[in-house]
Here is the input.
Amino acid sequence: MSFQIIKGDITTWAADAIVNAANTSLLGGGGVDGAIHRAAGPELLKECRTLHGCETGRAKITAGYNLPARHVIHTPGPIWRGGHQNEPALLASCYRSCLRLAEENRCRTVAFPSISTGVYRFPLERAAAIAVEEILAFLERSKVVCEVTMVCFDDKTKTAYDAALTRKESSRSR
Ligand code: ADP
Here is the structure.
């Protein structure tokens, strides 16, 4: 199994599945959601319309259309409202739901963007710790998903995920 953190554009990533930080309508939006829809082409929106939205913390899967990725797993992350409205648990649930769905669809390689840390304003360091925790725990027990990549769009995001992974590794070796 492998977990890597890279800087890049997730729309160019050739994985069995890439994850979209969507909104609950699943009908497209700004940020990474807009970029994925633009790169996938209009067929993606057509399929998304048949899904009738998705709850925060859950996930739904579609084809990847013009993307290099075979599938897109759409998950609405929590909007940060101060931290007392279940935001951390909902974010953890996003990562778990996506990975479970990837496994059910026999995806071996999965790529994530940094869910909720853009327009949804989830504090980056806390989001990174949650993502790393959930991904590593899942990789340890999954028989199907064997490679997960965090595709960070900017240096600040990559630095935060690198630091979260280093912290996790050093707490494990203690
Ligand atoms: P959310 O609404 O869940 O906060 P955003 O799309 O606003 O989602 O931001 C989530 C993260 O995705 C941010 O770190 C943003 O910089 C990043 N992002 C935007 N476009 C891309 C892309 N093409 N590839 C990877 N990450 C991206």
In short: The first strand starts at residue 2 and ends at 7. The mean pLDDT is 97.
